[in-house]
Specification:
The protein is of the alpha/beta class. It has 24 helices and 24 strands. It folds into 3 domains: 2-260, Rossmann fold (3-Layer(aba) Sandwich); 266-354, no CATH class; 367-457 and 538-682, P-loop containing nucleotide triphosphate hydrolases (Rossmann fold, 3-Layer(aba) Sandwich). The radius of gyration is 26 Å and the shape is globular.
Length: 690
């Protein structure tokens, strides 16, 4: 990387035989009005120079607090109560404030989950990158600017000389994360902490960021600690894994060995809760979940902290197990496996657990929703007085039929038109052209009064439940609102009874009705959203990314809940998600969108086994699999760059600018959506040739 690194003031190379970071018995506590939260409670691990270490666990396990402790960036009420954090032979906890500030960004860098919380929205990217490079005195302004441009180019941002003068809001989420990585590597750090850097990204952009992390680890030689709840992401990047639960480390080992044969029931459960593209069995739609909730960090249990949720617990679990090595570079905190017992493979548990294999009734064949030539463009302000008018081509001629009782998955990158299509269907937006027929009735341009009775039959679940739930209303009032609005219940007593019934239907206690949204976890808030949607007994539910921000276990619980409700209430789903493994797991048919156009429609099995469109194949290729051995052997179809602007979509085939088999014909002729196999449609001049 000599073309990127400016040699002035480069740090001395670390001793390759000694750990660059050692965390010893770290204890980080947070003082609250309710008491002391022991967020990190005795964690120890080390990182060798150039190593990639993954830290996984549910929300609240202590992953992010561990990273913030290393950087000494704890909130005001947080404190490190004990332990050591030794970086290159020096305990960071004993350093002065000036010494720690000198260390941050120079020798240790951190990339956060949401780059917009780290980038100043009113300053150009160039100013922020230059500042990061010169603040430690290793660059002057001119050399810092040269390095910033070179780093942006190295991070995969095209035309970095021009893009560097942009503001953060002018970049996509993936590009902003690349800017953060460029900032992190501006001073050649020896250690990079990446806290959920791909959580909010599309699968293709996630794959690009993971590829970039591996390349940066190889080219710069920096050690990386990658924090994630996605074991597929960890398998893709990391050589070693630390699993955290309830503030402590429960298992550690090489990525390949740990994911192939976990030795702690919590790791086992995390692996089984995540659907996998390479282990899909038709008919098995339910996922293994971890029942119950994590223990209260104000009062950890005296015995094994996972025991109340563990399917393998034994009498000895009443004692707190130590973290013991197993002699092969691995360690675990479990009395069961330390006693010599092995955990069963996922398939055996699924087969042995009552009710996990679900045979759902087939769709009736009756059409409940029909879209024909649907178009929606959004006008944008003109950049200047004499500039031509522009419009975002959000949805551009979509045809789709949904049969009663089926689940249709809708996939595609951000900007493909998924959410706009969902809002058109439920008539939050009015289409510019085309037709929407629901239950045989044309609702394309129906008035509010005309469509109001139909809203009882079609409901929507939004991506962010906290944004869609009124924070000033209790859960009971939120669920009761549609009952009162549509006059479904006769009086308040009947309304209260129905609210309790709905909350119970989605797995919440009737006492939850008195609480406000902020008093619930993310998964519980999504259950409230589902209860609100079910209140009017709908036939069709449009679920727009309902699990995108949830941990893998909560995600599995919500998926199982949706499957249960579909079986019990004969619901029809339009299910939108960017996680293709989840979409395959729940869907009968799948629609692939790109820049407002349908690229492919097929049954779930055919789409994943024999995709016809290059875009579909690239999406499938980008999905990480939680198996390090499989990840090393996979042949990926790398999709370069990001989708073109919807303000000026490419001529002809909209995917041609990123397609590996694009020909001159693709630029001049838009391919029609044609049925190439029974039930499998694709809009491609060269279907199945990738």
């Amino acid at each position: 990387m000599r073309d990127v690194a400016d040699g002035a003031g480069a740090p001395p190379k670390p001793d390759r035989d000694a750990p660059i970071l050692e965390v010893r018995d770290l204890r980080t506590y947070i003082d609250t009005d309710a008491g002391v939260v022991r967020a990190v409670d005795g964690v120890s691990f080390s990182v060798m120079p150039g190593e990639t270490l993954g830290i996984v666990g549910e929300s609240g396990s202590g992953k992010s607090v561990t990273a913030l402790s290393i950087m000494k960036l704890l909130p005001e009420q947080g404190r490190i109560a004990g332990g050591e954090i030794v970086f290159r032979g020096r305990d960071i906890l004993g350093m002065t404030g000036d010494e720690v500030r000198s260390l941050r960004g120079s020798r240790i860098a951190m990339v956060f989950q949401d780059p917009m919380t780290s980038l100043n929205p009113v300053r150009r990217v160039s100013d922020q990158l230059v500042e990061a490079a010169i603040v430690h005195g290793r660059h002057d302004k001119a050399s810092a600017l040269r390095r910033a441009i070179a780093l942006l180019g190295r991070m995969g941002i095209s035309s970095p000389e021009r893009q560097i003068n942009s503001y953060p809001h002018q970049f996509s989420g993936g590009m902003r994360q690349r800017v953060m990585l460029a900032m992190g590597f501006s001073n050649d750090p020896l250690l990079l902490l990446a806290d959920e850097p791909t959580t909010a990204l599309d699968v293709t952009i996630q794959a690009q960021i993971l590829d970039l992390l591996r390349e940066l680890n190889s080219d710069f030689g920096a050690a990386i600690i990658l924090i994630s709840h996605d074991l597929g992401v960890i398998a893709n990047v990391c050589r070693r894994v630390v699993v955290m639960y309830a503030g402590e480390e429960v298992e550690e080992g090489t990525t390949e060995a740990l994911l192939a044969s976990p030795r702690h029931p919590y790791t086992w459960a995390l692996l089984n809760a995540a659907p996998r593209l390479d282990r899909y069995t038709p008919g098995q739609r339910r996922l293994t979940t971890i029942e119950g909730t994590p223990p209260d960090p104000l009062n950890w249990p005296k015995g094994c902290r996972f025991a109340p949720r563990c399917p393998f617990k034994i009498e000895k679990c009443a004692e707190h197990p130590p973290l013991l090595p197993s002699g092969d570079g691995r360690s675990s905190r479990c009395w069961v496996t330390q006693g010599g017992r092995s955990l069963p493979p996922a398939a055996a548990q699924v087969a042995a657990t009552s009710g996990l294999v679900w045979s759902r009734p087939a769709a009736t064949g009756e059409t409940i929703l029909e879209l024909e030539g649907l178009v929606k463009h959004f006008s944008v302000p003109k950049p200047s007085l004499f500039a031509p008018r522009q419009a975002v081509h959000a949805v551009d001629g979509v045809d789709l039929t949904v049969r009663k009782g089926e689940t249709v998955g809708l996939v595609g990158e951000s900007g493909s038109g998924k959410s706009t299509l969902a809002r058109l269907i439920v008539r939050i937006h009015e289409p510019d052209a085309g037709t929407i027929r629901f239950a045989g009735q044309d609702i394309t341009h129906a008035s509010g009064a005309a469509i109001r009775p139909l809203r009882r039959r079609m409901q929507m679940i939004f991506q962010d439940p906290y944004a869609s739930l009124n924070p000033r209303m209790t859960a009971g009032d939120i669920v009761a609102e549609p009952l009162r609005f549509h006059g479904i219940t006769a009086d308040e007593a009947a309304t209260s009874a129905r609210v309790g019934e709905l909350l119970g239907l989605v797995g919440l206690s009737p006492s939850a009705a008195a609480k406000y949204p902020h008093e619930f976890s993310g998964g519980q808030r999504q259950r409230i959203s589902i209860a609100r949607a079910l209140a009017v007994s709908p036939d069709l539910i449009v679920a727009d990314e309902p699990i995108s921000s949830l941990d893998v276990n909560i995600q599995a619980q919500i998926i199982n809940l949706l499957i249960d409700l579909q079986e019990r209430l004969s619901l029809t789903y339009l299910f939108i998600a960017h996680d293709l493994a989840v979409v395959r797991h729940v869907s009968d048919r799948i629609v692939v969108l790109y820049l407002g156009k349908v690229m492919e429609i097929a049954s779930s099995g055919n789409l994943f086994d024999q995709p016809l469109h290059p875009y579909t194949r690239s999406l499938i290729s980008a999905v990480p699999i939680p198996d390090a051995a499989v990840e090393r052997q996979r042949q990926r179809m790398h999709l370069q760059g990001e989708p073109p602007s919807a303000l000026a979509p490419p001529s002809g085939c909209r995917f041609r600018t990123r397609c590996p088999i694009a020909a001159p014909r693709c630029a001049s002729e838009m391919p029609p959506l044609v049925e190439h196999r029974p039930g499998q449609w694709a809009a491609c001049h060269f279907p199945g040739q990738v």
